[in-house]
């Protein structure tokens, strides 16, 4: 039996497009992917739990983690730090399990530089008007922050070509199905089972 490493999937896209919503729905249905819980310096929103939604850190703690090289990537996004714990991702992949990141665009591009074998999925809204409606209707941002996030979103959408796949989040269920298809197709591409047969044939087994 050949030991294979897991595949790193990165779901990214502009703020408010529905990354969190699609990821949660995907994880309600799929058990084989491992979600990497991010670290952030932003305060917990109502209903969020430390260690479940994020690992909430002070700025000092976060900067120490950066200095110690404990983050696979990190970005400052609309006034707060966000980052991916390196050890969890590397160990999980090493153990042959797929890891799923849901991160913003700067961070995804850092991962692409350091980990080009990852699978990069860009989620886009059906339109910019719909994107604004989604951020506003979520009700978590002040008017100023909505403006900042929309401004950043325009720049982020320009980075779409750096990704392997683009998924339109028109309906959550459709977007989840497309992400599931990408996961399946990447497994087929890497031909794990085929490689095992090849190895067995080489070893002279029937
Ligand atoms: N397909 C969809 N159709 C309609 N509304 C949606 C859809 N997907 C997500 N939403 C809504 O849009 C809002 C933003 O979604 P969500 O918080 O998942 O976005 P996000 O990309 O994770 O945002 P951020 O990057 O700011 O964390 C939420 O109110 C969510 O319920
Ligand atoms: N670069 C990273 N971005 C991350 C990470 N975890 C989450 N995010 C993204 O940040 C924004 C804002 O999130 P919110 O929870 O404050 O709305 C959003 O786009 C997330 O996808 C991370 O580890 N690294």
Q: Would you write up a description of this structure?
A:
By secondary structure, the protein is of the alpha/beta class. The chain contains eight helices and nine strands. The chain has a domain at 8-36 and 97-205: P-loop containing nucleotide triphosphate hydrolases (Rossmann fold, 3-Layer(aba) Sandwich), CATH 3.40.50. The chain has helices at residues 19-29, 59-67, 86-94, 105-114, 128-138, 143-157, 172-190, 192-202, and strands at 8-12, 33-35, 39-40, 55-56, 71-77, 80-85, 98-102, 119-124, 165-168. A five-stranded parallel sheet has the order 2-7-1-8-9, sandwiched between helices. The protein starts with 7 loop residues before the first strand and ends with a helix. The mean pLDDT is 91. The protein binds adenosine-5'-triphosphate and the ligand Nc1nc2c(ncn2[C@@H]2O[C@H](COP(=O)(O)O)[C@@H](O)[C@H]2O)c(=O)[nH]1.
Largest sheet: 5 strands, parallel
Order of helices and strands: EHEEEHEEHEHEHHEHH
The CATH topology annotation of one domain reads as Rossmann fold
CATH class of one domain: Alpha Beta
What's the architecture of one domain in CATH terms?
3-Layer(aba) Sandwich
Q: Give the uncertain stretches in residue-range form.
A: none
The number of helical segments is 8
CATH homology-level superfamily of one domain: P-loop containing nucleotide triphosphate hydrolases
Content of β-strand: 15-25%
Which strand order spans the largest sheet, edge to edge or round the barrel?
A: 2-7-1-8-9
| Secondary structure: helix percent | 40-55%
Estimated radius of gyration: 18 Å
Structural class: alpha/beta
Number of strands: 9
The whole-number mean of residue pLDDT values reads: 91
InterPro entries: GK/Ca_channel_bsu, Guanylate_kin-like_dom, Guanylate_kinase, Guanylate_kinase_CS, P-loop_NTPase
Function: Essential for recycling GMP and indirectly, cGMP.
Pfam families: Guanylate_kin
Keywords: ATP-binding, Cytoplasm, Kinase, Nucleotide-binding, Transferase
């Amino acid at each position: 039996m050949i030991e294979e490493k897991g595949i790193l999937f990165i779901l990214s896209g502009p703020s408010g497009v529905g990354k969190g919503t699609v990821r949660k729905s995907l994880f309600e249905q799929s058990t084989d992917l491992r979600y990497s819980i991010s670290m952030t310096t932003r305060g917990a929103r109502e209903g969020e739990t430390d260690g479940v939604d994020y690992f909430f850190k002070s700025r000092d703690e976060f900067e120490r983690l950066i200095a110690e090289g404990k983050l696979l990537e990190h970005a400052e996004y609309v006034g707060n730090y966000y980052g991916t714990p390196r050890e969890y991702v590397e160990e999980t992949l090493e153990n042959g399990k797929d890891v799923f990141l849901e991160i913003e665009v700067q961070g995804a591009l850092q991962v692409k530089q350091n980990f080009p074998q990852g699978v990069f999925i860009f989620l886009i809204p059906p339109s910019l008007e719909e994107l604004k409606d989604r951020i506003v209707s979520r009700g978590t941002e002040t008017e100023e922050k909505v403006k900042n996030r929309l401004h950043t979103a325009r720049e982020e959408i320009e980075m779409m070509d750096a990704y392997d796949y683009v998924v339109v989040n028109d309906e959550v269920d459709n977007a989840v199905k497309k992400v599931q298809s990408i996961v399946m197709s990447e497994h087929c591409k890497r031909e794990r089972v085929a490689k095992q047969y090849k190895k067995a044939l080489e070893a002279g087994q029937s």
